Structure formats: structure tokens, C-alpha cells
Amino acid sequence: MVSFEYKAVGFVGLGAMGKPMAGHLAKKLPPGALVYVFDVAQVAVDDLCKEFPNRVVKSASAKEVAEKCDIVITMVPEGAHVKSVYLDPQTGICSTDISNKLLIDCSTIDTATSLLVKEYITKNFPTASFYDAPVSGGVVGAVKGTIAIFLGCSETDANLPRLTHLLHMMGKSIIPCGGPSLGLAAKLSNNYLSGIIAIAASEAFDMGMRSGLDPRVLQKVYAAGTGQNTICDKFTPVPGVYKEAPSSNGYQNGFKVQLMRKDFGLAVDMAKRVGSKNVLGELGLKTYTDAMNDPRCRDLDSRVVYRFLGGNEDWMKDID
Ligand code: NAD
């Protein structure tokens, strides 16, 4: 097996996803390698430094992380944060010499911002490499190290073996998607699909249940029929049908409806930009926007769209 040398790896953005991901690096990098971290929220930095005292080192800015490390991973919420982390003239990663460095952005953002950052880097530091690498699998996947990572690079990219080796410390499945920004395009089209399925599944369960069907029977029917999909199987929007689905636990610990709204909006914008006909986009976007603003749904797993659409959650008491 090929081995790679790691002296110092940087991580910027220690939120719900970034902190456990950086924690995996701290646990799995070879002895002697350090993890330099930065977040605008000091408490996240302090927590991780305390958990891994001889491994994780606090930095004063993204720029300082880049000065100390040959590889830097970023995981922040939106395009504006990615722009600031990379391009801020005083504190950004690109405000120091990043020649020959490997930069990996795991944030889920719009493809245009990712390409803008990549172009800036290619123009100013031709020997540096920048990749989009958004992830899927949620906070639970980040904690367990089982996330999927969609890499904006080709199968023949010279950096792919090194990227795969590093990213495998944080995730289970690493998929090269073809080229710059295509990891993001893949992630956004996946979340569009998953978001639409959740709405369709909620409506399908609701019409079946109102017609007199037990949702557990409906789930079996979908699983055996042409409607089979992961949302109905394992993220069942109706509570009490699949025990481990967030819906069965008060829609807690899932993929928040606000994040679905964000990704869905990015996907609809992408579809417009590339001229893809998109009849369900506006309806889906309105549904998630309204659900996100509904106090009964906000902060809960996005499959709470079943509640938003008026689905019966108390169905068990209507069954003999
Ligand atoms: P989060 O809000 O929990 O964490 C983001 C972190 O970035 C915060 O700690 C924040 O302080 C930090 N940050 C913001 N601006 C910064 C800056 N300029 N410099 C340094 N740090 C900065 O978000 P999250 O849930 O970890 O999500 C991060 C990204 O991953 C998002 O793009 C999200 O869509 C994506 N994602 C999230 C999930 C999920 O289930 N939470 C799943 C897959 C992908």
C-alpha cells in the first residue's frame, strides 16, 4: 500500500460537521503530525484542543492555518463564508503564499463561488491545488466517520490517491465526480432528488392513510413496488413506521429543514444556470421555505415536511 507523509493538516470551520471530521484526523493521522485549527467561534477550537492536547493546535486565522500546513480542509456554512475564508485580503488562506499546497473545501455551496475561488488560486498560485469535496451523511455520519465525499476531481488527477487516503480518515466512500465544481453539482442534484422524494413520499403516505391503509403496510408496498426509495425505507416521514428514522424520535437528530432549504435553493439556481428544465423546483423550494418558517417544523429533520403538509402523526391510536 502507498503511504503518504503528513506533517501538519489544517482544518477551518469546527461546526456540527467540521468538529467531528477534524477529530477523526486527530485520531488517525500518523504519529507526529499536527492538526492546526481555526474557527470564528472560539469555544469549538478550545474544545478540540482540550480533547487532543498534543495533537490539535489553535491558530489565530485561516491565513495562519495555511502558513503552518501543506494541506488545509475547510468546512463552513455558505458561499460568503468560503469567500471570506479563502479570499479575505488580511486573514484569508490566499493572503499568504500557498504555492504547492493542497486545499479542500467540504462546504456545500454554489458552484459559481467554488469556481471563483479555484480560478483565483490557479491564477495567483499555479502550483497550489483546490478541490470542492462536499459531504453527505449528516452529523451522525461525521461522528462515525461514515460520510460520503463527492470530490470535484477526475479519476486521473495526480492528487487523487493522496486525497483519497486523507479523506478516508473522515469518510467511508470517496467518489471522484469528474472535475472542478462537479462534486458540488453531484451533491446538489442528490439533495434536490432526496428533497423531492421526501415531499412525494409524505403526500403518498398521506393519501394512502386517508384511504384507510396502515402506514406500515404502505411502507412494505413501496419497498416491493416501483416507488422503492431510501426515504420511505429508512427516513420514513411518518413517525413510528421505521424505528431509527428521525421522525420516530420527534424529527430530532436529522438533516435540518433549513439546510434542506439551503441546498434545494442552490440546486434550483444551478438548474437555472445550466438551462435544465425544472418543473418541480419552484414548488419544492416554496414547500421547504414555508416549512422552515413554520415554528412546528423549524430546526427539525427535513422529513418533517410530512407534518407541514398535514399528515397524521397519531395514526397508531386509530388502528385496532
Ligand atoms: P455549522 O453552522 O454547525 O458550522 C459551521 C462552522 O463554521 C461554525 O463553527 C462557524 O463558526 C464556522 N465559521 C463560519 N464562518 C467562518 C469563518 N469565516 N472562519 C472560520 N470559521 C467560520 O454548519 P455544519 O452543519 O457543520 O455545516 C457545514 C457545511 O456542511 C454546510 O455547508 C452544510 O450545508 C454542509 N453539510 C451539513 C450537514 C449537516 O447535517 N449538518 C450534512 C452535510 C453537509
Automatic annotation (TrEMBL):
It comes from the Eukaryota. One of its GO terms (biological process) is L-valine catabolic process. It holds the Pfam family NAD_binding_11. It is an enzyme of class 1 (oxidoreductase). The keyword Electron transport does not apply. PROSITE patterns: 3_HYDROXYISOBUT_DH. Gene3D superfamilies: N-(1-d-carboxylethyl)-l-norvaline Dehydrogenase, domain 2 (1.10.1040.10), NAD(P)-binding Rossmann-like Domain (3.40.50.720). Residues 9-177 form the 6-phosphogluconate dehydrogenase NADP-binding domain. The active site is at K187. One of its GO terms (molecular function) is 3-hydroxyisobutyrate dehydrogenase activity. Residues 183-304 form the 3-hydroxyisobutyrate dehydrogenase-like NAD-binding domain. PANTHER family: 3-HYDROXYISOBUTYRATE DEHYDROGENASE-RELATED, DEHYDROGENASE, PUTATIVE-RELATED. Belongs to the HIBADH-related family. 3-hydroxyisobutyrate dehydrogenase subfamily. This is 3-hydroxyisobutyrate dehydrogenase. It comes from Hyaloscypha hepaticicola.
